[in-house]
Specification:
2 domains, 14 strands, Dihydrodipicolinate Reductase, domain 2, 6-stranded parallel beta sheet, Rossmann fold, 8-stranded mixed beta sheet
């Protein structure tokens, strides 16, 4: 008698995750095809504003959207209508996690909710796709490592640039020595918006402001604090450093293949009552254990520049360019012998650009759910990438250069800096 997909998944849940595959799968997919109905998992999505709706739409290719949760009633009702009016909708995500028809959880909420929701989903026995940045603090990442590491759950982080063929190519070329010995990397984002003071307002009747705030301090409702502009408040996010940085620094660190030991950040902190408070005019210099230097700037051409002893190469969401790239015509990469990650997207058509790359990124996640393998944006690598973003912000906010021990994940003999590894959490929303 054939097992149903749900029975197969329940059986696989007893097995622990193992390391990456040791060889490339030999079958190449000509195109991504929707899975047959009997093979499809039940998907529950939390946070349905723009990015949440994007990843839910991409997950629809591989699974059935059975539940939606959002603290804004207008948002969740619009999302239900967009996905065929069939998913159940919830204000509180915990009620959604209790449903047995939810196999997989997507998290597209503001940053300050990522860690707690991910932990709750894993403890509820769900596999999780969580938007970047993975955490609000470095200590949250340590907790996640323990919780996810002691489970058998698959977690993919939404750093989809790893599934974009241009970024993947650039990182792999650096690791294969195509620009010689890597010496310096420059990540350029754009400037953080400034604004305020903003006026307080009555909380809309369709919006659960208390639940939206979660672990953060309870403050009067200001429309600019919520939805997209949450990114420019340090209470909820880290500005461009964790928004764009979680993408670009992740790719840079993928290529650098080391961890930071020294961080020197400079930037101005706005002092506007009821206004955006992430740093402006920032510049951060980071030194890695292997000697590579990384500069993170809020100016210049958005993207990543790699500089080595034998050339340099630039990559962003529009191009990958440089003499080493031109040389690929005559000297292609020996991918059968060397890859950044064995369980990756080399069996899929190359895709570039956000909406297309997420197809591969989500596909990689669903593959790993079926195979019980680590995905391309696994939790440990993403904890380390976003930790570098947090380190940059901490250096800026303390106003000085900092030494970092990447093994112990502390600032040695620096009690003041170590205070920034975590934040106070509002009662009832603690992460543990």
């Amino acid at each position: 008698m054939a097992l149903s997909r749900r029975e197969m998944m329940a059986g696989m849940a007893a097995a622990s995750l193992v390391g990456p595959f040791t060889s490339i799968r030999s079958v190449t997919r000509a195109e991504e095809k929707p899975r047959h109905k009997v093979e499809r998992a039940g998907v529950g999505a939390i946070g349905m504003r723009y990015q949440g709706s994007v990843i839910t739409e991409k997950a629809r290719l591989y699974g059935d959207i059975v539940a939606i949760s959002d603290v804004d009633r207008h948002v969740r009702e619009q999302a239900r209508a967009a996905f065929g009016s069939t998913p159940r909708i919830f204000e509180n995500y915990e009620e959604m996690l209790a449903r047995p028809d939810v196999d997989i959880v997507l998290i597209g909420t503001p940053d300050h909710w990522h860690t707690k929701m991910l932990i709750d989903a894993v403890r509820a026995g769900k596999d999780v796709y969580c938007e970047k940045p993975l955490t609000l603090t470095i200590d949250e990442g340590k907790i996640l490592r323990d919780v996810v590491g002691s489970s058998d759950r698959v977690v993919q982080v939404g750093t989809w640039q790893r599934s974009d063929s241009r970024f993947r190519l650039a990182a792999e070329m650096v690791r294969q020595g195509r620009i010689g010995k890597l010496q310096k990397v420059t990540c350029s984002t754009s400037k953080n918006p400034t604004g305020g003071p903003f006026a307080t307002a009555p909380v809309p009747s369709h919006f659960n402001w208390n639940l939206w705030q979660g672990q953060t301090p309870d403050v009067p409702y200001i429309p600019e604090r919520a939805h997209y502009t949450f990114r420019w408040w340090y209470e909820y996010s880290g500005g461009k450093m964790t928004d764009w940085g979680a993408h670009h620094i992740d790719i840079a660190q993928w290529a650098i293949d080391s961890l930071p030991v020294h961080i020197d950040g400079k930037g101005a902190l706005p002092d506007i009552p009821n206004g955006y408070n992430v740093s402006k005019d920032f510049e951060v210099k980071i030194k890695y254990a292997n000697g590579v230097e990384l500069d993170v700037l809020d100016n210049g051409r958005n993207g990543i520049m790699f500089e080595g002893t034998e050339g340099r190469m630039f990559v962003n969401r529009g191009t990958v360019a440089g003499t080493p790239v031109d040389d690929l015509k005559n000297n292609p990469l020996p991918r059968e012998e060397f890859t950044l990650y064995d369980n990756d997207n080399l069996t899929r058509p190359e895709r570039a650009g956000k909406l297309d790359a997420i197809i591969n990124h989500m596909g990689n996640f669903f593959d790993c759910v079926e195979n019980r393998q680590q995905p391309i944006s696994d939790l440990e690598s993403q904890h380390r990438s976003v930790s570098t973003c947090h380190l940059a912000n901490i250096s800026i906010r303390t106003g000085r250069a900092l030494e970092w021990d990447p093994q112990k994940e502390v600032f040695p003999n620096d009690a003041d800096a170590n205070k920034h590894l975590k934040r106070e959490q509002r009662a009832g929303f603690e992460i543990a």
